[in-house]
Write a structure and sequence with these properties.
By secondary structure, the protein is of the alpha+beta class. The chain has helices spanning 2-28, 124-130; strands spanning 45-53, 57-61, 67-75, 80-88, 95-101, 106-117, 133-134, 144-154, 161-173, 176-190. A hairpin with a 5-residue loop joins strand 2 and strand 3.
Length: 195
């Protein structure tokens, strides 16, 4: 019983000392400093590569992978095929939007293949065979890509002259937005097919 009483007194003494030290330390410290490092996400979506097929087109690309420009000259007898690989190299998933704003007389039919992981790029044929084809661009997770295939052609309403258009892709994460584009310049030299 004596040992129990000694432990009880010792325990009460230690608790009193600990409480007193905490109160003294709390009154002694006037400010609290916290050193931390905060990293935000990286919105890094770009056009990795592209393929343009048309006899009368010249292609220019920007160095940052956000825009390509296509100048097309000729009569109304042409079709323009554009394949664009869009990759999410960032650290967060993005919601993708797509908009085509082309002049009157020019049609654009677009399909999107994917999404697929970047490590699958070495076997692109099986990707195209196995992936779903969408009419609207799918959202991209981290390390994913999508292949955009555009077929652009004139119709009977096309007029001679110069017209400009744009195809825009928008990657969004909350309020952060990155825009990718294909700028198109059409110089229609004749509104009929030359034989």
């Amino acid at each position: 019983m004596m040992i129990t009483r000694v432990f009880a007194i010792l325990f009460a003494t230690l608790m009193s000392i600990t409480t007193l030290c905490g109160v003294i330390y709390g009154h002694w410290i006037k400010e609290l400093r916290i050193h931390a490092q905060v990293e935000t996400g990286d919105l890094n979506v770009n056009i990795r590569c592209y393929k343009v097929c048309a006899l009368c087109a010249k292609v220019y690309s920007g160095s940052d992978g956000s825009c390509i420009r296509i100048d097309l000259t000729g009569s109304r007898c042409w079709m323009l095929f554009i394949k664009v690989l869009i990759i999410n190299n960032g650290t967060m998933p993005v919601r993708m939007n797509y908009k085509s704003d082309l002049p009157v007389g020019i049609n654009c039919k677009t399909h999107f293949i994917g999404p697929f992981k970047l490590n699958e790029l070495s076997d692109i044929l099986s990707i195209i065979k196995d992936c779903k084809i969408h009419d609207d661009i799918p959202d991209l997770d981290v390390g994913e890509a999508v292949l955009a295939c555009h077929v652009i052609s004139p119709n009977d309403d096309i007029k001679e002259g110069i017209a400009n258009g744009i195809v825009t892709y928008e990657a969004r994460f909350n309020s952060w937005v990155k825009t990718l584009c294909i700028e198109l310049s059409f110089n229609i030299t004749s509104s009929h097919c030359d034989n």
